[in-house]
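Field: sequence (string)
Field: structure_tokens (string)

Example rows 1 and 2, in order.
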Amino acid sequence: MEDFNNKVLGLASAALDRTDRAILTFTSHESLPKPIACKIGCHYCCFNHPVVTPPEALLIGHHIEQTFMDHEKQGLIHRIKHVVDVTKDKTPDEIALIRYELPCIFLKDGMCMVYKVRPVVCRTCTSIDAEHCKNVFESRDHMARLRCYHHIRDIFQRVQKNLVNQCMEMGCQSDLLFMAEAIRDYFKIPNATEAWLQGKRIFTGYFC
């Protein structure tokens, strides 16, 4: 069992490390016109329904098993149920319209409960104007675009695509997944990591 975990967790961790290094390399350029404005307690982008790859979901699930206390797990189950109920039968576009009603299942007191293993999509969601993020959130303007460096979004696209391709090469489920459903499914399947490596389709909350 430990070998299965190490293989998958290593795959996901390596992708997260590549993401962090690429962002650091880009943001360390002295020629950038503005610094990244994101800081502790700024969580407007955390009202969303994040999409993750299977290795990222498995890494987060493992992290929950290893670090969450029982009451934290119970609270997480409640938040997952709420998100699943609110988004049931809705398309991605319809979900985007109500993102302001969807705090991430891991957002607690303005902080991320899984920050150490947060997925690529969260690591690359950056802004150069925190006040603009605040205004967009408070106005509920779903057409507004956050002010960010497109190069960092390109990092997200490359890393995510590479993870999906690796899953396919391994003969494992490679669907992009909604976070809430993915974590729900992780705890429904005994030895989820092993089952995924064996080619079983263990996740049902696909992004399409």
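Row 2 begins here:
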Amino acid sequence: MDEAKDTEKDRREADATPLPFRAAVEALRAARLRPQIEIEPTPPPKRLAPCSYALEAAVVDGDQDLADGRLVLLHDPAGHDAWQGTFRLVTLVRAELEPEMAADPLLPEVCWSWLTGALQARGLTYGEPSGTVTRASSHYFGGLSARPAASQIEIRASWTPREGLGGVPDTAAHLASWCDLLAQVAGLPPAGPGDASVVTLPQRRGPQSR
């Protein structure tokens, strides 16, 4: 009986979901990505917008995660002044770095250019970009002194994807661009001839459980 109630509740919620948001989510689910990136749905934030959908991803090499991140699609049918649109994409991307790379004073600007460059490389139009690039270093002492020092880069960003036919943005292309960013931060080689100009970031990763 409880299962029947849950099914009915899910059906009512699906029927109440705006069609543009449903189409945008279906495009995310159908997107085909490079095999080194493992991606799956994750519970989205509930208070940022009336409709939300989230994915988490990891760039995997054997038993190591080279980079990981989260992408959230937000939708407010009434529009949002700060977004200048009805959709918004919000992301977090993280990766560990070689200490000498983390010390590069131009690293934050370079990482931000990777985000905007990934969108531009696929011909995507977007507005109101904002975000931060943070680098941090950890040094271990006492009982943890055997661990090598670790450095990490973190990119937090959001942007408004331009809407196409039916008020639906090309979320599959935006997801592909986001995965390009993940791969670049992870230090993967270019995916194909069209990406030959991509400069990747050298990595130093110790064993990490997933």
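free_text_note (row 2): Residues 2-195 form one domain.
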